[in-house]
Design a protein that fits this description.
Layout: E1 16-24, H1 33-46, E2 63-65, E3 74-84, H2 90-97, E4 105-113, H3 120-123, E5 124-133, H4 139-151, E6 156-161, E7 164-169, E8 174-181, E9 187-196, E10 199-200, H5 203-210, E11 216-226
Parallel strand pairs: 3-11
Antiparallel strand pairs: 1-3, 1-4, 2-3, 5-9, 5-11, 6-7, 8-9, 9-10
Length: 230
């Protein structure tokens, strides 16, 4: 498909930018970020939204997901921006999206923002996660692990990067860590990790540093925090 093949007003410049909050639930937690983007593209087309398209040899619908979710992680409050060639009310957009959403995707808040506002990715600062554990270890013992980890001035870790191994310090990427007991008594670890263009912490690395990765039951990203939240 080239620019001359685009339907209707899709070749026009954008007239509206909408910010959509969504949840990615259990049925879709094993799809990749790329597959999620393709899913949203199909949803927008089936909903009949007047999508704006990028320029170039292979134009694509203009939308941006704030942050990729690791495979296997549930997202409770994810965000994306989409650009339209016609102005629609948030209620109209919601009414078009609801019938074509697959099981596992839910739409929350929809708001209009300025066409020239900075991208979500550039304004992302942190992400909140909750790890639910299959462990009989008392919450107090896990709290002691957390306190010991937070006392460490550095937490050197290794990760794959561009085909090789890279050493990095996980400690400055951890903004907060806490543990509590769930309704069924299971330990739940809440963590706030840096997630910005300057670096991002990985929840699986935090659990591994705590020696608890092997008892993980489920992992959720509960919130994304942006510069404009201040």
């Amino acid at each position: 498909m080239n620019g001359d093949d685009l339907p209707g007003k899709a070749q026009e410049g954008p007239r509206q930018r909408l910010r959509i909050q969504f949840a990615k639930g259990e049925p879709l937690k094993y799809i990749s970020h790329l597959d999620l983007a393709r899913t949203w593209e199909r949803i927008f087309r089936r909903a009949g939204l007047p999508l704006a398209y990028s320029h170039g040899f292979t134009p694509r619908p203009r939308f941006q997901i704030a942050a990729g979710l690791p495979v296997g992680v549930i997202g409770r409050a994810e965000w994306l921006d989409v650009w339209l060639t016609e102005r629609l009310s948030p209620d109209e957009v919601r009414s078009r999206l609801q019938p074509v959403l697959p099981t596992g995707l839910e739409v929350g808040e929809i708001t209009e923002i300025d066409l020239t506002a900075p991208s979500l990715q550039s304004q992302l600062r942190a992400a909140d996660y909750r790890a639910v554990l299959r462990s009989q270890e008392p919450v107090e013992a896990i709290r002691a692990r957390i306190e010991e980890l937070l006392k460490s001035p550095t937490l050197l870790r290794r990760r794959r990067h561009k085909g090789g191994w890279q050493t990095y310090d996980l400690r400055p990427l951890i903004q907060s860590l806490s543990v509590q007991a769930g309704d069924d008594g299971e330990p739940m670890i809440d963590m706030r990790l840096q997630a910005s263009p300057q670096g991002a912490g990985r929840p699986d690395e935090v659990l591994d540093a705590l020696g608890l990765s092997w008892v993980l039951d489920r992992l959720e990203r509960t919130n994304l925090r942006f510069e404009f939240d201040k």
